[in-house]
């Protein structure tokens, strides 16, 4: 590991230096609570607090050097200080230097967009494993280095954790890494300093407006990822999405498109769409896939296109892709002994809810009832709550509004925010049950053979965060249990 200060700072533009740059540092730290002797403390301005307020505390715990945007009034002896314009960006570059630029030693592909990131990154990971490559994955569900699973705390880890994981992938001989790039990560420069072999854009719809404030700044965050790709990389975009081409406006990367409707470099057509899977025509090849739903035709096509841009054999790619089932908790399908269908899905945006429910409308036979159990996360975008409830009501016969992860909010208040989206004509369809387990139980009791229960919003999650405490909770396990009970 490279840890002499002047090597770590390579590529960072410094406005002012106080003290030695020859010092050896033990680690990089951006949270004073984790400071230890010999670390370089990077003061980052956050959403809750300002890292600059903790510089003294970091030094008290042993920090040997400080990187910041504003020098403290009290400059201490024997401590090195570095003044920069943007410490979050500097942190990304330093973290990459610390681990010897691991992103340049493998082919790193980033996936960004509102929905579909986990699905695409996971399918690419599974595909490249199947094609025989050592591969890494950084995703919402989990991080993975070949067969080793490492739990994930974020969709995109912080820069230090991210570069450490990439470095472990290089150590394990990985040729490729597929990672999700969240809009938070771009806005907070978590991916600064990384060298990408390619970037993929899925779609852009309503989410995270609590954090980005406007749709425009959300769009800019996503676009920022493509703006930073270099001319050796590819930039693959969904041409059917309204903002697909906007993403590529200022990129230096090779521009490539995929789509089902518009003219594109990579094209596909849906031939058949069933609960058992999709039959697609991809560039004149008809192939059955296990993945369900028209939105997955986009995901599969993006994966196929990326694999070809990474110079893989077309037929081998299609053969392998046809066997894959994607990420856990995405359109996870089960059927009870009495014939009730249960689907667990991670849809937690209005667009995802509509996609999942409209897919079900497309493929169901006609007379069955669709019963949707849905909640919205606390401490997240409040404006999506009434819209998600409205979409759920518009596309279901019965809707049970319930809790997702209330986090620090009052669960009943979140449900009231959702209820505001239930239109008068839909009132008789909706009922509210705060306890999510009770809500799933009720859906199972209401369902008759042939009916379809959709439990949306938590997908693979194995917990429910109530009041900041994560209690064990698993939609799939609970649904399986009740479906068998009522059968
Ligand atoms: C809103 C958000 O993204 N917050 C992330 C952010 O925290 P922050 O900017 O709010 O940090 P802060 O608490 O204001 O503190 C500012 C700085 O002071 C430091 N500090 C703070 C307190 C202290 O005593 N000492 C100290 O040094 C902090 O370490 C930080 O460097 O930076 C932290 C360190 O990287 C993250 O852990 C934290 O993620 C929180 C836990 C989170 O829930 N993030 C979610 C919203 C998120 O990032 N989600 C996206 C996916 C969304 C999607 O599905 O698309 C993700 O990539 O996971
Ligand atoms: N291409 C797509 N277009 C629209 N909706 C999709 C698409 N792919 C998946 N979805 C829906 O969005 C949900 C989330 O999918 P996925 O986990 O792949 O997205 P994500 O972008 O990783 O989400 P997150 O931001 O939470 O990490 C799925 O459960 C499904 O309902
Ligand atoms: N990564 C997303 C996931 C949301 C999933 C949903 N279950 C919720 O808790 O809101 C976020 O942090 O916004
Ligand atoms: Mg994800």
UniProtKB/TrEMBL annotation:
Binding-site residues for UDP-N-acetyl-alpha-D-muramoyl-L-alanyl-D-glutamate, renumbered to this chain: 32, 155-156, 182, 188, 190
Metabolic or biological pathway, per its Swiss-Prot or TrEMBL entry: Cell wall biogenesis; peptidoglycan biosynthesis
Domain Mur ligase C-terminal positions: 329-459
Residues where meso-2,6-diaminopimelate binds: 380, 404-407, 457, 461
Motif (Meso-diaminopimelate recognition motif): 404-407
Keywords in alphabetical order: ATP-binding, Cell cycle, Cell division, Cell shape, Cell wall biogenesis/degradation, Cytoplasm, Ligase, Magnesium, Nucleotide-binding, Peptidoglycan synthesis
Function: Catalyzes the addition of meso-diaminopimelic acid to the nucleotide precursor UDP-N-acetylmuramoyl-L-alanyl-D-glutamate (UMAG) in the biosynthesis of bacterial cell-wall peptidoglycan.
Designated name of the protein: UDP-N-acetylmuramoyl-L-alanyl-D-glutamate--2,6-diaminopimelate ligase
Source organism per UniProt: Daejeonella rubra
Lineage: Bacteria, Pseudomonadati, Bacteroidota, Sphingobacteriia, Sphingobacteriales
């Amino acid at each position: 590991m490279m840890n002499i200060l002047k090597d770590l700072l390579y590529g960072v533009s410094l406005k002012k230096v106080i003290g030695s740059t020859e010092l050896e540092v033990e680690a990089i730290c951006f949270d004073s609570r984790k400071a230890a002797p010999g670390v370089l403390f990077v003061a980052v301005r956050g959403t809750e607090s300002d890292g600059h307020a903790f510089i003294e505390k970091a030094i008290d715990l042993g920090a040997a050097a400080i990187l910041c945007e504003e020098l403290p009034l009290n400059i201490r002896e024997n401590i090195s200080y570095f003044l920069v314009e943007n410490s979050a960006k500097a942190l990304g570059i330093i973290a990459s230097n610390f681990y010897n630029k691991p992103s340049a030693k493998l082919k790193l592909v980033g996936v960004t967009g509102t929905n579909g990131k986990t699905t695409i990154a996971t399918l690419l990971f599974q595909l490249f494993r199947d094609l025989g490559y050592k591969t890494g994955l950084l995703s919402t569900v989990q991080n993975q280095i070949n067969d080793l699973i490492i739990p994930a705390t974020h969709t995109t880890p912080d820069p230090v954790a991210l570069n450490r994981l990439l470095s472990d992938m290089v150590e394990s001989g990985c040729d490729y890494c597929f990672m999700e790039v969240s809009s938070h990560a771009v806005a907070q420069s978590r991916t600064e300093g990384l060298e990408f072999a390619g970037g993929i854009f899925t779609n852009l719809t309503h989410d995270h407006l609590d954090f980005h404030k406007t749709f425009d700044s959300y769009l800019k965050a996503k676009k920022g990822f493509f703006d930073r790709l270099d001319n050796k990389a590819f930039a693959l975009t969904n041409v059917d999405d309204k903002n697909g081409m906007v993403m590529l406006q200022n990129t230096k990367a090779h521009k490539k498109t995929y789509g089902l409707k518009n003219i594109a470099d990579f094209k596909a057509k849906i031939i058949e769409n069933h609960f058992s899977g999709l039959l697609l025509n991809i560039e004149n090849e008809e192939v059955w896939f296990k993945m369900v739903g028209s939105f997955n035709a986009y995901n599969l096509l993006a994966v196929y296109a990326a694999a070809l841009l990474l110079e893989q054999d077309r037929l081998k790619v299609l053969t392998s892709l046809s066997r894959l089932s994607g990420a856990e908790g995405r359109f996870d399908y089960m059927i009870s002994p009495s014939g009730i269908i249960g689907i667990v899905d991670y849809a937690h945006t209005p667009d995802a809810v509509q996609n999942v429910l409209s897919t079900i409308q497309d493929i169901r036979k006609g007379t069955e009832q669709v019963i949707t159990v849905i909640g919205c996360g606390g401490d997240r975008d409040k404006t999506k709550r009434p819209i998600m409830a409205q979409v759920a009501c518009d596309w279901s016969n019965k809707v049970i509004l319930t809790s997702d992860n209330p986090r620090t909010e009052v669960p009943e208040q979140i449900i009231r925010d959702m209820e505001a989206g239930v239109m008068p004509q839909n009132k008789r369809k909706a009922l509210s049950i705060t306890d999510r387990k009770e809500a799933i139980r009720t859906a199972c009791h209401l369902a008759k053979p042939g009916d379809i229960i959709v439990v949306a919003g938590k997908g693979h999650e194995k917990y429910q965060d109530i009041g900041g405490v994560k209690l064990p909770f698993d939609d799939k396990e609970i649904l399986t249990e009740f479906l068998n009970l009522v059968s």
